[in-house]
Design brief:
- By secondary structure, this protein is mainly beta.
- The chain is built from three helices and eleven strands; from the N terminus they run αααβββββββββββ.
């Protein structure tokens, strides 16, 4: 059933959240929330480790996720949600890390700019941070790291 409802879940449908046992108001109850990337600058082809902390004051089911607002070629952004952790009896400090691979994909092209990261508790935003993504260039050559290896392109 979870798999069939995942689109409605990500769209923050309160009926679906309740059906799966998650309280949409849990985001208002959590405290000591942090979202901290190891660096606020990253390069295309690189990796960013992001640490998060959430304290749940009472026992409640918690779905932790994060959202990346990727910058498009025209400067607008598009959001993509990712799963971190589901805990059915969260009553203490929840902490961990996730890694963002800034790799070019056939389904998602990366462009330089400020990419917003948000931490989600039961699909609601509780913290945000930003990472500035840059292209790596040396001596006027743009370095492109893809599945076929590293290519050099003169600017």
């Amino acid at each position: 059933m979870r798999r069939g409802l995942r689109t409605q879940f990500k769209q923050e449908n309160p009926d679906v959240l309740a059906l799966l046992g998650y309280d949409i108001t849990a985001a208002e109850k959590v405290t000591d929330v942090t979202l901290q990337p190891e660096s606020d600058v990253a390069v295309i082809g690189g990796l960013t480790t992001v640490a998060y902390t959430v304290r749940a004051p009472e026992t409640m089911p918690v779905y932790l996720g994060y959202r990346v607002d990727y910058v498009r070629q025209n400067g607008t952004t598009t959001a993509k949600d990712f799963f971190c952790k589901a805990d059915d009896s969260a009553s203490q400090l929840l902490q961990g890390v996730f890694r963002l691979k800034w790799q070019q994909l056939t389904t998602r092209r990366l462009y330089p700019g400020v990419h917003r990261l948000t931490l989600l508790v039961n699909t609601q935003v509780v913290a945000e941070s930003w990472v500035t993504l840059k292209e790596l260039s040396i001596f006027g050559f743009l370095i492109i790291n893809n599945k076929k290896g590293i290519n050099y392109k003169h600017r």
